[in-house]
């Protein structure tokens, strides 16, 4: 302190105390950033968590792979999700935070147009329009109750009592997916009247697609499958999910088993079909689920004459958010007889924030506590928005989130957009970054609100309350399918698919319009017999039919009609459904239980809400001009499968019940006033989310597997999987977007991507990348190998040579060798994981014990056998010799060694820098990163202050205590801070620049210990 600051009046000694040892407040803890897959959670954006329990809550638990139980319905858990293990390893060490970027499939506009591997999503191959001799695509099994048992079991079938007809409609019960082969139903052998055709009666077994065929005498459908993978076989099943013959237990549900890629495990495809959606809930409601006398017909599901539109083609579809239908208001018109639900005021809807298909598979929405205003201050009423587990029941509600006292008043603090949040993020391909939109921050982890612009501008009636909703989109029923019906406007493929199944139009007598060639594809000359019409609901008649090429036995099909219906949500009928003790607890709208009266959830409910096909409309309830779109004539898709409203609640002698159309009939409980049902406790309803999609190729055990790029040079435009990784890394490239000190993508070994990670870290200057090397270990989901030893794809020497050829030289990266084994703590399963996972755990446990600048390696802080990795490490893929460890370390690859007495130890801490300097060690690089970040934050405190000596002194007063503390903690051995006229010159002052120099001497870790043992004679003196 200058003497000018002392006030001298009388003689004396004046002493002042100056404390330069104070430690300024450090920045908020900064942790690693991990990129990888997870079972759920916000995707393609960084999310910070502060504990492993919080990670589980957001992203789910670790996934060891190997789970093949109903992959299509439950999700792909066939391969390990290494990122979840990295999060576990680090957070279990007791330090935080960790930032996670969950991956979902992404594509570029160029990749989408190119298709193939460049496009996200999946599709079946060998679709009939491209290969008319081979079946492929999506095929629905439509079922109906038998009109006459005798018609199915008798010796002749000469009546029409067993035919499907408009009074006995066909309902979609299941969807099958194929790449090739044939699929037919088999009917019982019987003698059948040939009708008016001449020729002898025949006794034969019926095999056909496109023909109505009944169950066998045991109450089972007989599905005849023929394919190159598994040959010909018959699968017998029913739709009773309590039976061991239940369709999902009898038919393969894993799309990966159809893969023809020889690189996968198993080495070749083992199945020819996979079962997709089944609709048990609707079958139960129709009393068809446990029936033993059903009739069924297999029909192609796709836009007629095209394979570009249909559930079998989800290609070019990147990940997509599930949405809930528009919430609509009550009818205030005063004219109930003119009521039409679709014309009611749309208020708002909820959209997923980045969860993909997880949201519609696991969450539903309830609107409850709907109340009209009881205040003279405002006319706006209130309501609650509750996000619930889709598997809960109204008897036992399981709440994920709730937002109470919401309203539609844009000026209110309880405005729905303000209460939940309306912000969302969107990727800018041109700027390569996420951009935020919306006004109010997100307070929900799952959804954000899209408010109708009229509501947001307060241009709607303040009395409006959410009273109902638009249901998910659906398929238009075919009410009179017959020999004269053209189905080109429906998602029923009446041409090429059925040609491949062996059915074509035959221009013979009207009684025999269609011919099925008993499962054999027709020859080229038969292709001309096909027209654009489709024919269903026909009874089967055998005859010897001449087609001009010799006599072939076929199945003649007589003209008949049938109606075809597609499944849609069940709605609560009565307030007493489910045996509620208090009927006011009833949630109207969506019902997710097994039956109307059941209190057990139904697993098939989520199959009703999948995305119908790729590039589906974001809002199918609105046409291109903004008008309401009831039915899309080009595909038979309805903008909504139903509309629910409390305006259709009826009050009868036995209480309240729902009756669609009652409002227009002037018979609803709201005819006199909408407030009457609210005051009587009818003030809640439930609606589903629909249309989420993950963007993955579900036919791959791991859609991001590295083997797909072997020998190739992928780019964002040629590989959607490559683009997914690249975009995730680009998302966190800006240090102002996310803080991190380590970047890793465990399991990723593609060289250009891992090098991009290093470059991003180097450009940021505040983090280092931990990368995995190719071929160190080849897991089962990457490539088929007949033995465990064959899974070791390289040697230490070869790994070093390959890495040297890459010419990577950066202190902002590090790598390790070999892979290690862990035990999944949830399931107890043993699995091999990349070494970066263990290294992240070591960094965490080391940081908990010491500071970031201590070497996270060796027996004290790198002993994996002693728990340094945060997760149990039980083995390594290769036991390295001393010479191999030397080879690796010299090649800048950190070895993981196994010692007899000390177990498994991380035995190196080199960065990827080739030049020898202090920065070629991980602990020094992490020290410098830490110091740069801390001093950067400290320096920000003097931004925009005057560039004068007093400010310089203030800067030094902030920084020097920090440097002194690092020295005290053994991070550096000495330092010097220079900030004066020699650094900040007048020229720099004129440019508004303060320039300081900080020189440090990093403390080095001991990596080599040299000890001389000198053996002397007995008489020698140690003092010599």
Strand order of the largest sheet: 2-3-1-39-40-41-45-46
Structural class: alpha+beta
Instruction: Please tell me the overall pLDDT.
Output: 83
Instruction: Please give the share of residues in helix.
Output: 10-25%
Radius of gyration, CA atoms, in whole angstroms = 35 Å
What share of the residues does DSSP label as strand, in percent? 15-25%
The counted number of beta strands is 48
With helices defined by DSSP (H or I, 4 residues minimum), what is the helix count?
21
Enumerate the spans where pLDDT stays under 50 for 5 or more consecutive residues: 129-133, 148-166, 189-204, 481-486, 494-560, 624-628
Q: What's the overall geometry?
A: globular
Distance between the termini: 54 Å
Task: Please summarize the sheet with the most strands.
Answer: 8 strands, mixed
What does this structure look like?
With 1024 residues, the chain is α+β, with helices and mostly antiparallel strands. Among the domains are: 137-311 and 491-565, no CATH class; 323-472 and 569-690, no CATH class. 17% of the residues lie in helices and 22% in strands. It contains 21 helices and 48 strands. The chain has an eight-stranded mixed beta sheet, with helices on both faces. Strands 4, 5, 10, 13, 14, 26 and 31 form a seven-stranded mixed beta sheet that branches. α3 (82-91) runs parallel beside α16 and α13 (720-731) packs parallel to α14. It is globular. The two termini are 54 Å apart. The model is unreliable at 129-133, 148-166, 189-204, 481-486, 494-560 and 624-628 (pLDDT under 50).
């Amino acid at each position: 302190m200058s003497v000018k600051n002392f006030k001298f009046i009388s003689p004396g000694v004046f002493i002042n105390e100056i404390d330069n040892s104070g430690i300024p407040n450090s920045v908020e803890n900064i942790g690693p950033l991990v990129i990888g897959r997870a079972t759920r959670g916000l995707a393609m954006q960084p999310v910070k968590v502060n504990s492993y329990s919080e990670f589980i809550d957001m992203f789910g638990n670790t996934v060891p792979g190997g789970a093949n139980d109903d992959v299509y319905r439950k999700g792909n858990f066939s391969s390990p999700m290494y990122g979840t293990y990295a999060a576990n390893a680090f957070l279990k060490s007791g330090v935080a935070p960790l930032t996670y970027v969950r991956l979902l499939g992404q594509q570029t506009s160029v990749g989408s147009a190119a298709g193939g591997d460049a496009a996200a999503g999946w599709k079946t191959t060998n679709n009939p329009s491209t290969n008319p001799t081979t079946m492929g695509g999506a095929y629905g099994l439509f079922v109906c109750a038998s009109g006459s048992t005798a018609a199915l079991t008798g010796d002749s079938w000469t009546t029409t009592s067993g035919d499907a007809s408009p009074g006995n409609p066909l309902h979609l019960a299941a969807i099958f997916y194929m790449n090739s082969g044939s699929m037919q139903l088999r009917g019982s052998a019987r003698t059948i009247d040939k009708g008016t055709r001449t020729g002898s009666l025949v006794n034969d077994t019926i095999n056909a697609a496109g023909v109505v065929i009944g169950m066998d005498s045991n109450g089972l459908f007989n599905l005849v499958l023929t394919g190159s993978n598994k040959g010909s076989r018959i699968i017998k099943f029913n739709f009773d999910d309590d039976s061991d013959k239940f369709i999902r237990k009898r038919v393969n549900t894993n799309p990966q088993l159809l893969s023809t890629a020889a690189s996968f495990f198993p080495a070749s495809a083992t199945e020819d079909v996979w079962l997709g959606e089944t609709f048990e809930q609707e079958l139960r409601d129709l009393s068809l689920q446990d029936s033993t006398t059903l009739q069924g017909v297999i029909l192609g599901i796709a836009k007629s004459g095209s394979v570009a539109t249909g559930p079998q083609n989800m290609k070019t579809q990147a990940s997509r958010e599930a949405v809930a239908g528009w919430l609509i208001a009550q009818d205030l018109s005063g004219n109930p007889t003119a009521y039409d639900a679709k014309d009611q005021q749309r208020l708002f809807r909820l959209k997923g924030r980045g969860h993909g298909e997880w949201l519609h598979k696991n969450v539903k929405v309830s609107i409850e506590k709907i109340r009209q205003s009881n205040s003279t201050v405002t006319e706006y009423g209130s309501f609650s928005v509750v996000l619930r587990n889709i598997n809960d029941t109204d008897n036992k509600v399981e709440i994920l989130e709730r937002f109470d006292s919401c309203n539609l008043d844009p000026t209110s603090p309880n405005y729905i957009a303000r209460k939940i949040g309306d912000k969302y993020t969107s990727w800018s391909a041109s700027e390569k970054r996420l951009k935020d939109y919306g006004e109010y921050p997100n307070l929900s982890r799952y959804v954000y609100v899209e408010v109708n612009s009229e509501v947001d501008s307060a241009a709607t009636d303040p009395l409006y309350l959410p009273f109902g909703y638009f249901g998910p989109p659906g398929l238009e029923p075919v009410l009179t399918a017959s020999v004269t019906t053209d189905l080109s406007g429906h998602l029923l493929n009446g041409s090429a698919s059925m040609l491949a199944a062996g059915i074509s139009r035959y221009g013979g007598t009207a009684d025999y319009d269609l011919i099925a060639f008993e499962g054999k594809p027709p020859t080229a000359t038969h292709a001309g017999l096909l027209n654009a019409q489709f024919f269903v609901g026909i009874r089967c008649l055998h005859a010897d039919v001449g087609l001009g090429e010799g006599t072939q036995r076929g199945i003649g099909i007589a003209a008949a009609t049938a109606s075809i219906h597609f499944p849609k949500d069940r709605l609560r009928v009565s307030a007493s459904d489910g045996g509620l003790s208090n009927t006011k607890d009833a949630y109207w709208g969506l019902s997710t239980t097994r039956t109307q009266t059941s209190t057990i959830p139904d697993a098939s409910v989520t199959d009703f809400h999948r995305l119908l096909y790729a590039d589906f409309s974001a809002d199918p309830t609105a046409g291109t001009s903004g008008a309401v779109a009831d039915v899309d004539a080009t595909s038979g898709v309805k903008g909504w499968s139903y509309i629910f409203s409390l305006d259709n609640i009826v009050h009868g002698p036995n209480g309240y019940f729902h009756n669609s159309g009652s409002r227009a009939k002037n018979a609803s409980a709201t005819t006199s006033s909408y407030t009457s049902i609210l005051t009587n406790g009818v003030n809640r309803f439930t609606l589903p989310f629909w249309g989420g999609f993950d963007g993955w190729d579900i036919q791959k055990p791991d859609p991001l597997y590295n083997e797909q790029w072997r020998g190739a040079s992928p780019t964002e435009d040629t590989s959607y999987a490559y683009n997914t990784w690249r975009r995730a890394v680009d998302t966190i490239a800006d240090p102002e977007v996310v803080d991190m000190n380590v970047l890793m993508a465990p399991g990723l070994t593609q060289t250009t991507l891992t090098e991009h990670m290093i470059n991003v870290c180097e450009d940021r200057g505040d983090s280092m990348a931990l990368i995995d090397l190719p071929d160190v270990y080849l897991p089962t989901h990457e490539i088929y190998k007949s033995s465990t030893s064959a899974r070791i794809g390289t040697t230490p020497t070869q790994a070093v040579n390959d890495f040297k050829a890459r010419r990577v030289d950066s202190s902002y990266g590090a790598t390790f060798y070999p892979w290690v084994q862990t035990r999944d703590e949830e399931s107890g399963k043993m699995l091999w994981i990349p070494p970066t996972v263990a290294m992240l755990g070591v960094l965490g446990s080391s940081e908990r014990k010491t500071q970031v600048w201590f070497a996270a390696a060796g027996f004290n802080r790198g002993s994996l056998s002693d728990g340094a990795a945060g997760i149990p490490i039980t083995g390594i893929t290769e036991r390295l010799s001393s010479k191999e460890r030397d080879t690796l370390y010299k090649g800048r690859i950190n070895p993981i060694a196994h010692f007899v007495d000390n177990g498994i130890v991380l035995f190196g801490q080199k960065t990827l820098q080739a030049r020898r300097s202090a920065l070629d060690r991980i602990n020094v690089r992490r020290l410098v990163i830490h110091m740069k970040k801390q001093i950067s934050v400290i320096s920000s405190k003097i931004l925009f202050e005057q560039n004068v000596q007093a400010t310089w002194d203030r800067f030094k007063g902030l920084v020097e205590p920090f440097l002194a503390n690092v020295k005290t903690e053994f991070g550096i051995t000495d330092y010097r801070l220079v900030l004066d006229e020699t650094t900040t010159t007048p020229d720099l002052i004129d440019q508004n620049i303060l320039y300081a120099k900080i020189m440090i001497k990093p403390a080095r870790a001991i990596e080599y210990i040299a000890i001389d043992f000198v053996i002397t004679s007995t008489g020698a003196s140690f003092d010599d």
